[in-house]
Specification:
It is built from five helices and nine strands. It is an alpha+beta fold. Among the domains are: 74 residues, no CATH class; 82 residues, no CATH class.
Amino acid sequence: MRVFRVNALPAVREPIAMYLVRVPGSPETFQIFVTGRDGVARGQGVAQGAQGLSAYQAAVAAGFVGTEDAWLASLRGPAGQNGTNGTDGVDGVDGIDGADGLDGAPGQSAYQIAVAAGFQGSEAAWIASLQGPQGPPGLVLSGTATLNVQNGGFGASVTVAAGVTAASRIVVSLGSMGASDENEADMLGPVTLGAIPGDGQIEITATFLYPQSGPVPVTWGVF
């Protein structure tokens, strides 16, 4: 049976047709319309359907014993078994490389950064400011010698050093000793260590806190 809205009853070829139209908001109530060939309603009435049973009521009628909550709980079956893991999908195809990005803006020069940080002056003045003071002169001569320490902790050595004059400036230090040498620096306890330049030679003298004896290596340099 076809159901149409009340304001849209169609004309029919049959001399008389009957239509049931559900009343909005009342699913069990229908309006009955009888129309002629021209679609004009010839009469109408109301049909009220009987209230149906709920699912719970139907279950009770079929033999279920218990409350509605118990019946709802009975509808839930036991938990199913865990399904098996699916197979891994195939790796997708690598995408194409993206277009190169735009070049960045030119950065500031070191001089521009210095100006931004507070430097005042021309670029030439800034370059000149980067040059530090003149450092001390380096060694022009260097060498090693051996002090023969006598009992009492005094040692002396006269070393031949070509190019040395009485005006030369000398620096002298204890040299490297073996780990088993009894005259290691921490065992000797050096008190003084000096050098006197001469023409073509250096006189090196030293005194030690502990009266050891034997050779003690030293290194020297001339500025």
